[in-house]
Amino acid sequence: MPRTDRAERLIAAPRTRVYDALLDRNSLETWLPPAGMSGRIDQWDPRPGGGFRMVLTYLDPSDSPGKSSDATDVVHVHFADLLPPELVVQQAVFTSDDPSFAGTMTMTWHLTAPDAGSTHVTVTATNVPPGIDQAVHEAGIASSLGNLAGFVEGVG
């Protein structure tokens, strides 16, 4: 049965600033990797139908082996839908020889504006591969949201 993981956060920044950070290569490399990882984007095409390839590297691979190699997770992300400034839908496929990580996971980033200076971000991951531990995945999404908040709240 397909699984859904989610996380949410209120960010003290305007919705357009948050949305822009979801579609800027340098921004994503900075804030998207969760705690304990670094990230590098190799390919970049920020439009509906486009996407990117990101290599996430574990800072301490002995604690968390990678899906693609001993120290990395490689993910190919397709932009399935972009609706500025409220929605980004990504379809993510991990590079892995392990079938428990196979399949296409959909990540939906929904942004609402409770007021002019803040954004409520809800991230919903559907069709999560069974090899990805739910608690670890939700903690990783929450970590990325915390990084996103720090990134966009610090922009003047």
Number of helices: 3
How widely separated are the two ends? 45 Å
Structural class, from helix and strand content? alpha+beta
Radius of gyration: 15 Å
Tally of strands: 7
- Uncertain spans: none
Proportion of helical residues: 10-25%
Counted up, domains total 1
CATH class: Alpha Beta
CATH architecture: 2-Layer Sandwich
Features:
globular; 156 residues; alpha+beta
Description:
- InterPro entries: ASHA1/2-like_C (IPR013538), START-like_dom_sf (IPR023393).
- It holds the Pfam family AHSA1.
- Belongs to the AHA1 family.
- The chain is an alpha+beta fold and 156 residues long.
- It has one domain (4-153): Alpha-D-Glucose-1,6-Bisphosphate, Chain A, domain 4.
- 22% of the residues lie in helices and 42% in strands.
- The chain has 3 helices and 7 strands; from the N terminus they run βααββββββα.
- It has a 7-stranded antiparallel beta sheet.
- β6 (105-115) and β7 (118-126) form a beta hairpin.
- The mean pLDDT is 90.
